[in-house]
């Protein structure tokens, strides 16, 4: 089974990138799309993010065999309910949300009886909106599918083939495990970045211009992450609450251990820890998940 008509709901960074990647890698597929914001719809039409920009979510999905929801995770259930009456019974509904258990539950409630195969392409930038998307976003990135236990294997295989055609490597995972893994690899790092940028800007005795002027000391790499979309990240933390709190607890314990090592002057502990973390960075580069260049190669992709 292969998909012929794909509907994309939400035409920001992720939705726009899916549309552009389909146009480039799967030109035989017809795409339609919808975004709640009229200005975004107009911009999506100008950029050609999808073949047809529709005036409602229902119109966009009417003839679709695959629907990809690319809205913030807190909006997934409402969007699904909005398009439910127009959805073909055989269509596969998927999404790109950054947390999976909450989204799977919201979609199953809004679309009883429909085939739902949640997905999360682990690829993104700190930019958002209809001008942020680009066709190579998914190249060499992982896309995690979290099909329910009773999912039709042929439909799961079709969705996996779709993402592979867009350049991604696909992995299947249980939704709860996905949420735990992403809590530590993505959600916690964002929380830390949001915290440290806030801490620096609230400091008394260090001016904001000093923080900006001397940001190359490390701070500026956090500011890139802390510039990520506020709506998206509010929703991620609220929907993946338990896993994030669990990881935050572990992080706090580890931070306390380093704090103690600094206080008692335990250089060996600090050195050993930093050596271990440096090796993890090397592995990420060796596996092609980042670039060793000082700007992480981001200028090549129009990223921040
Ligand atoms: P984005 O650029 O802000 O795009 C989301 C779009 O959805 C916006 O245009 C938004 O319009 C629209 N929207 C919101 N509610 C809607 C509704 N009810 N009906 C139709 N359209 C609606 O955000 P994004 O980065 O593409 O994120 C989309 C999804 O991808 C999120 O679930 C996020 O967790 C996931 N994701 C993001 C990244 C990343 O790095 N950014 C990576 C992987 C996965 P308004 O602006 O008017 O609200």
What can you see in these coordinates?
This protein has 304 residues and is of the alpha/beta class. It has 2 domains: 5-173, Rossmann fold, CATH 3.40.50.720; 177-265, 6-phosphogluconate dehydrogenase C-terminal fold, CATH 1.10.3660. The chain has helices at 13-25, 38-47, 57-61, 76-83, 101-110, 153-165, 175-202, 208-213, 219-226, 230-239, 241-264, 267-286, and strands at residues 5-9, 30-34, 52-53, 66-69, 92-95, 115-116, 119-121, 142-145, 169-172. The strands form 2 sheets. It has a 6-stranded parallel sheet, with helices on both faces. The protein has a 3-stranded mixed sheet with strand order 7-8-9, covered by helices on one side. The protein is globular and about 65 Å long. The protein starts with a strand and ends in an 18-residue tail after the last helix. Bound molecules: NADP nicotinamide-adenine-dinucleotide phosphate. The site of NADP nicotinamide-adenine-dinucleotide phosphate has 29 residues, from α1, α4 and α10.
Layout of secondary structure:
Layout (H helix, E strand, L loop, with lengths): L4 E5 L3 H13 L4 E5 L3 H10 L4 E2 L3 H5 L4 E4 L6 H8 L8 E4 L5 H10 L4 E2 L2 E3 L20 E4 L7 H13 L3 E4 L2 H28 L5 H6 L5 H8 L3 H10 L1 H24 L2 H20 L18
Parallel strand pairs: 1-2, 1-4, 2-3, 4-5, 5-6, 8-9
Antiparallel strand pairs: 7-8
Helix pairs in contact: 4-5, 7-9, 7-11
Percent of residues in beta strands? 5-15%
So, the CATH homologous superfamily of the largest domain?
NAD(P)-binding Rossmann-like Domain
Residue ranges: pLDDT <50 for 5 or more in a row? none
CATH topology of the largest domain: Rossmann fold
CATH architecture of the largest domain: 3-Layer(aba) Sandwich
In helices, the fraction of residues equals 40-55%
| The CATH C-level class name of the largest domain | Alpha Beta
Number of domains: 2
Report on the biggest sheet: 6 strands, parallel
Overall geometry: globular
Helix/strand order, N-terminal first: EHEHEHEHEHEEEHEHHHHHH
Using only CA atoms, what is the Rg?
A: 21 Å
**Estimated structural class:** alpha/beta
Catalogue the ligands: NADP nicotinamide-adenine-dinucleotide phosphate
Compute the number of helices.
12
Alpha-carbon distance between the two ends: 38 Å
> Strand sequence of the main sheet, in spatial order?
3-2-1-4-5-6
Q: Mean pLDDT, rounded to whole units? A: 94
Number of strands: 9
């Amino acid at each position: 089974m292969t998909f012929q008509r794909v509907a994309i709901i939400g035409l920001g960074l992720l939705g726009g990138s899916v549309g552009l990647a389909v146009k480039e890698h799967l030109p035989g597929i017809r795409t339609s799309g919808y975004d709640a914001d009229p200005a975004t719809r107009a911009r999506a039409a100008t950029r050609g993010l999808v073949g047809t920009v529709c005036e409602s979510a229902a119109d966009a999905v009417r003839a679709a065999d695959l629907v990809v929801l690319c809205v913030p995770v807190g909006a997934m259930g409402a969007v699904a309910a909005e398009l439910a009456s127009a959805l073909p019974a055989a269509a596969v509904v998927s999404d790109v949300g950054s947390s999976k258990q909450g989204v799977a539950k919201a979609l199953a409630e809004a679309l009883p009886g429909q085939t739902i195969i949640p997905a999360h392409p682990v690829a993104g930038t700190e930019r958002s909106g209809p001008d942020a998307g680009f066709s190579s976003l998914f190249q060499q990135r992982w896309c995690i599918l979290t099909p329910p236990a009773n999912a039709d294997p042929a439909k799961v295989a079709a969705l996996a083939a779709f993402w592979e055609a867009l350049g991604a490597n696909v992995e299947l995972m249980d939704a709860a495990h996905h949420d735990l893994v992403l809590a530590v690899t993505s959600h916690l790092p964002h929380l830390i970045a949001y915290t440290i940028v806030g801490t620096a800007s609230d400091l008394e005795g260090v001016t904001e211009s000093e923080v900006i002027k001397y940001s190359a000391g490390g701070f500026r790499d956090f500011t890139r992450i802390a510039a990520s979309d506020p709506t998206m990240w509010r929703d991620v933390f609220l929907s993946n609450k338990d896993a994030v709190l669990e990881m935050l607890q572990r992080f706090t314990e580890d931070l306390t251990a380093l704090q103690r090592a600094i206080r008692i002057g335990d250089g060996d502990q600090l050195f050993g820890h930093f050596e271990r973390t440096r090796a993890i960075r090397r592995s990420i580069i060796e596996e092609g998940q980042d670039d060793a260049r000082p700007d992480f190669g981001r200028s090549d992709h129009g990223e921040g």
